[in-house]
Specification:
It contains 13 helices and eleven strands.
């Protein structure tokens, strides 16, 4: 998959466009982890991407996103863009094609906002992501309140990345999560499911659950789990404590490789 992604970058660059790896694959590479997928950003416009690549799917063409299909692998290839307005708390009302720095600044967290050129082996970091990787911090890019109001799912993503990476929250990021916790209730069930499944499948699933509880997010997204807190059990059979503690022990006993 990695070599195929490099070929796509090379093809775009040979046609005169900027093209880089973006987001999670750059973060994982800098951390020494194996990337699960390779997203690509480019100065090429969507029509140009489609013209250059043999097989594509215009999954989000109006937002500048094209899926490149190479064998069994799919690669998201996106035009550099900036976003304008998020009236539904999920998608931008309008996008404007722009340059690499502006594209980086519209993303969620500094550690996810870096680009990497696999041809020249150069990292492009306009948001301080490398410094936050060293400090093991999850920090919203720019104003954390604006980032959350743009896409409410970022509340869950902050908690997920903090725990899957075993990082800490930047104080401003943490305060923004506390302030906007109730907005998590507005995220669609499908998107919530995907984030929570990733949380409970990671090495620090119990810490993620405690973060959901502590921030007030658990009460919004899983009220039936929140209701376990403080429900006593017969001490004769359950020395661990209330139903909440029992449920955490159950989760902790399940292999992280189990199907969610």
């Amino acid at each position: 998959m990695q070599q195929t992604s490099i070929k796509i970058v090379e093809l775009l660059q040979d046609a005169g466009h900027e093209a880089y790896w973006a987001g999670g694959c750059v973060r994982d590479m800098l951390l020494g982890h194996e990337a699960k997928d390779y997203d690509i950003v480019t100065s090429a416009k969507p029509d140009g991407i489609e013209d250059l690549l043999e097989k594509t799917i215009p999954v989000g063409k109006e937002f500048g996103v094209i899926i490149a299909v190479e064998g069994e692998h799919h690669f998201e290839v996106a035009t550099f863009r900036s976003d304008s307005g998020y009236s539904d708390g999920r998608r931008p009302d309008a996008v404007m094609f722009t340059h690499a720095e502006e594209d980086a600044k519209r993303r969620d967290f500094t550690v996810n906002g870096m680009f990497y050129d696999p041809i020249t082996k150069k990292t492009y970091d306009y948001v301080g992501g490398q410094a936050d990787l060293k400090e093991r911090l999850i920090r919203f890019i720019g104003d954390p309140h604006e980032r959350i109001l743009e896409d409410h799912l970022r509340i869950l993503r902050a908690i997920r990345f903090k725990n899957t990476l075993d990082f800490q929250y930047h104080p401003d990021t943490y305060q923004a999560i506390l302030h906007h916790a109730k907005l998590a209730d507005k995220v669609s069930g499908e998107r919530l499911r995907d984030e929570i499944n990733k949380m409970i499948s990671c090495d620090h699933a119990l810490d993620a659950l405690e973060d959901l509880l502590e921030t007030g997010v658990l009460e919004e997204v899983l009220p039936e789990i929140y209701a376990m807190k403080g429900v006593a059990q017969p001490y004769q059979y359950h020395h661990e404590g209330d139903v909440w503690e029992h449920a955490k022990l159950c989760l902790d006993s399940i292999s992280k490789y189990a199907n969610p």
